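I hope you will forgive my troubling you with a question about protein structure. The matter concerns a single protein, recorded as an amino acid sequence and a row of backbone structure tokens. Please examine both parts with care and let me know of anything in them that strikes you as inconsistent. Here, with my thanks, is the record as I have it:
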Amino acid sequence: MEFGSDIDYNNQSLSGFPYCFTKDGLLCHKVTGELYVFRFDCHDVQGTQREQATLCGFITTYVYNILEHHLQLQRAFLPHDEGFVYMSPGALQNKRALLVLVQDRGTMCCGVWSWRMVVREGLRRGGQILYVLWAMAEGWAVLLVNPNEGGLSPEEHVCRVWDCLISQSAAEHIVMVAHGYGGLAFVDLLCRRAEAVESRVSAVAFIDSSHNVWHQPLRVDGRGWLRSHSRRWVLSSKPLNGPVGTLRAGMQLSAGTLCHDSAPAACMESVFRFFTKAIRPRAPPTPFSIVTRSRSMRLAQDRDMRAGNGHHHNK
């Protein structure tokens, strides 16, 4: 079964908004059935801002409803009224793995990669729902950070979530997905909490990330840790996972799209393959013996003697 195919996204009772989500997660007009089209009017900036605020408010309310009532995620509040995140039940007690999702900076709420992609292609591609379902199918815990709410900067929010929640996880493996500015926020966390992050995080997937290892105060060994524990998917016209990059940027992989908003959906299967490989138990090395020249000669002499004895016996 395809992930998310059993979720009925249709719920028209959330607000008086004239649009609703269909069973496939597409935002359509309640009467005409036409897809929602966001209209930017450069002559009416305030009107455009009001429309965006109304749209984002509707999407936020709707997605929170999906997270809480369909996926059974729970809100975990940060101290000092600094916002909240969503976690699966018993997330910090899950001993296997914890998946952490960090979205881009902007007006995206918890559970959404891009509200523009939600509008254009629906919740399945613009939301984080399929990531959550995939992790749950693997028996992993999930934590969705909320860097655009609560009054903190994205960097401060991610650091606070690490200190208060992620660092308390019992998981053997912590894996993180960082989209856009979320990548910069993660590298900032690595700068601040280097030892803890390097010892706990097994893998990081950067998707069209804004981070720069040369412009952020990252230690040399931190850059080495990133090379061995992360993959970076970048916008490219090349096929998905095709090598992209320069000597300075290092080896990067194609996201298979030129659209920033659609990159998380385009990369999802590749990201989870990367995570699965990163946390797979490594097989013990196969023992082998070194054959020296003198030993090789002795072995050859032994074979000759056995062959000679056999020939004499046959006579």
